[in-house]
Design brief:
- The protein has 146 residues and is mainly alpha-helical.
- Helices cover 62% and strands 4% of the residues.
- It has a domain of 96 residues.
- It has a two-stranded parallel ribbon.
- The radius of gyration is 21 Å and the shape is flat.
- It comes from Microbacterium amylolyticum.
């Protein structure tokens, strides 16, 4: 009994971690690295939604794996639109954005992950070189106080 309970708890933890990783891989490519528009900025609804999100191009398999969230722009503009229709709305919205000169961002899945990694490195590391060791730098270039 105790062993089965322990294994069930371990399986539950593993599934939660896997699900969290999966959800991160679905949500991060759509927003991370996109410009942030302050709430105080006077910008219309369309521009606010389109400028702060990106679409991920792909096949119907990608649509299924991402739950339709690869059409993030359409999802933000029409949140109650059924998922299968997001794919059909994408070219219409892209054409409308081109006509009114609204920046419409769309990329491939792997390219979006590269954008996310660059963004996280830029924000987290403050533009520092990721391959330098802080302790080695401190020893090579000591500060007057330390």
């Amino acid at each position: 009994m105790c062993r089965a309970y322990h294994m069930a708890c371990c399986l539950r933890k593993a599934l939660f971690r896997l699900f969290g990783f999966y959800m991160g891989m679905v949500f991060a490519p759509n927003h991370k690295g996109m410009p942030l528009v302050p709430r105080s900025a006077t910008i219309d609804f369309l521009r606010r939604q389109v400028m702060m999100s990106r679409n991920i191009r792909g096949s119907r398999m990608l649509d299924t794996a991402m739950g339709g969230l690869n059409y993030q722009l359409q999802h933000h503009l029409f949140p109650s639109m059924p998922r299968p229709h997001l794919r059909h709305a994408a070219p219409l919205i892209a054409a409308y954005c081109r006509e009114y000169e609204v920046p419409y961002t769309e990329t491939e899945l792997l390219a979006s992950y590269a954008i996310v990694v660059r963004y996280i490195n830029r924000v987290g590391l403050g533009e520092r070189d990721v391959f330098t060791c802080p302790l080695a730098e401190q020893r090579l270039h000591p500060t007057p106080n330390g």
